[in-house]
Amino acid sequence: MSTGHKTCTHFVLWGDRMKVTNTNITDNEIAEVLSQAGLTDKQIKAFFSECCGKDCCAEKVRVLRSTRRSLLDSIHKEQALLDKLDYVIWCTEHKESEG
Torsion angle of alpha carbons 29, 51, 5, 39, nearest 10°? Predict the structure, then answer.
């Protein structure tokens, strides 16, 4: 894995405004994000070994979007669990105040 910098466009939101800046991100930083998102070392190595032609970059984007979708699904499942727990808390508090 190279440690060279890549220039990426970075979007920052402030309320209803969006600021677009250029930032540098290393392959190591990308690998760390991919690891935190749940990709295995083997998957990360495969991601970086892809060529950089148009079709290969499209495959990288497909992998990234798929990973994002999986992560978002996990977040939604955790949110549903939090909602249920909040409901149990609410029911418990109101049951105690009634009895």
Answer: 0
Q: Which helix (H) or strand (E) segment is 88 a member of?
A: helix 54-98
Report the alpha-carbon angle 12-16-20, nearest 5. Answer: 30
Q: What is the DSSP letter of 50?
A: S
Mean of the pLDDT values across residues 9-33?
71
The angle subtended at Cα 25 by Cα 24 and Cα 31, nearest 5°, is: 175
For the stretch 12-18, contacts whose Cβ atoms lie closer than 8 Å and that sit 24 or more positions apart, written own/partner, are none
Which has the closest alpha carbon to 45: 1, 8, 14?
1
Q: How confident is the model at residue 26 (pLDDT cuts 50, 70, 90)?
A: confident
CA-to-CA distance for 17 and 72, rounded, in angstroms?
24
**Gap between the Cα atoms of 58 and 62, Å rounded:** 6
Is residue 56 pLDDT above 80, yes or no? no
DSSP β-bridge partners for residue 18: 13
